[in-house]
Amino acid sequence: EVQLVESGGGLVQPGGSLRLSCAASGFICNNYWMTWVRQAPGKGLEWVANIKEDGSQKYYMDSVKGRFTISRDNAKNSLYLQMNTLRAEDTAVYYCACGGHADYWGQGTLVTVSS
Amino acid sequence: QAVVTQEPSLTVSPGGTVTLTCGSSTGAVTSGHYAYWFQQKSGQAPSILIYDTSNKHPWTPARFSGSLLGGKAALTLSGAQPGDEADYYCLLSYNGPWVFGGGTKLTVL
After folding, report:
1. Per residue in A45-71, pLDDT tens?
2. pLDDT tens, A5-29?
C-alpha cells in the first residue's frame, strides 16, 4: 500500500518558521518529481512547489518565492518544505504528492499562522 | 503567474452527462499544458483522474474522459452517479510551474 505521511504542521506566529516533512512508503518517489500543494480552509487547491528527481530543478508559486524552500532526501524517500517568514495567508492544509503524474497524495498537515 | 478558470458550480442529473472546462489566461490550452484533473470529496485528499489531457489512471472510472475542447481542457462525465458529487480541479503545467483552477463543485441531483 502506498502511503505518504506529512508532519510538522502546527500553530506559528506571523513571521515564524516551520519545516514540513513528507515520508513515503510502499512506493519509490525517488524516480519522480515531488510536489507540495496547499488548501486554505474552505478554499481550493493551490500548487506551492515542485522538485525534480535529483533536486536539480525547483519551481515555486510567486507568493512563496524567497520564503519557502523545497528539498528532498532520496535515501529516506522523503520530501521537505522549509517555510520562513510565515504570513496569515499561508494558513492551510499542506499536502505532498509524488508519482509520474502526482499520482499519490498524503492526507495533509495543517499549518496555522496566527498571533 | 497564469490564471486558470473553471466553472464554479455545475449540476447534472443521475445518469446524465456533463462537461467541465479549464481555461488559461495565457491563451488556448494545448497538449503542452499536460492538463490534469483531480477529484476531491468532502474531507478527503485529492485524487487524480486524468493526466496529460486525456490519460486515465487504472483507478479512474470509465465514465470520466478528458479532452481539449474549444481552446480549453475538458473533463466529461457520462452517466453521472451520486458518488461523483465532489469538487473537481484542473491543473495546468507552464513549463515548470503549475497552476490549479479554482475548482468546480459538481452536484448530482
Report:
1. 999 999 999 999 999 999 999 999 999
2. 999 999 999 999 999 999 999 988 9
Number of CB atoms found within 10 A of residue A65's CB: 10
Q: Is B52 on the interface with A (CB under 8 A)?
A: yes
Min Cα separation A57/chain B (Å)? 9
d(CA A40, CA A88): 10
Residue with cell 510565515: A86
pLDDT 10s digits, B62-71: 999 999 999 9
Mean pLDDT of A97-115: 94
Cβ atoms within 10 A of the Cβ of A100, count?
A: 10
- Strand pairing partners for B74? B21, B67
Q: Which amino acid is at A74?
A: N
- Angle value at C-alpha B11, between B8 and B16, nearest 5 degrees: 135
Q: What is the spatial distance between Cα B35 and Cα B55, in angstroms, rounded to a whole number?
A: 10
Whether B37 contacts A101, CB under 8 Å: no
Cα B98 to its chain centre, rounded Å, is 15
Q: How far B98 CA lies from chain A's nearest CA (Å)?
A: 6
Band of pLDDT at residue B1, cut at 50, 70 and 90: confident
Q: Which of A52, A68, A105 best tests the B interface by mutation, with the highest count of B CBs <10 A?
A: A105
Alpha-carbon distance of B70 to A35, in angstroms, equals: 30
Partner residue facing B1 (CB), from A61, A105, A108: A61
Cβ distance of A44 and B97 shorter than 8 Å = no
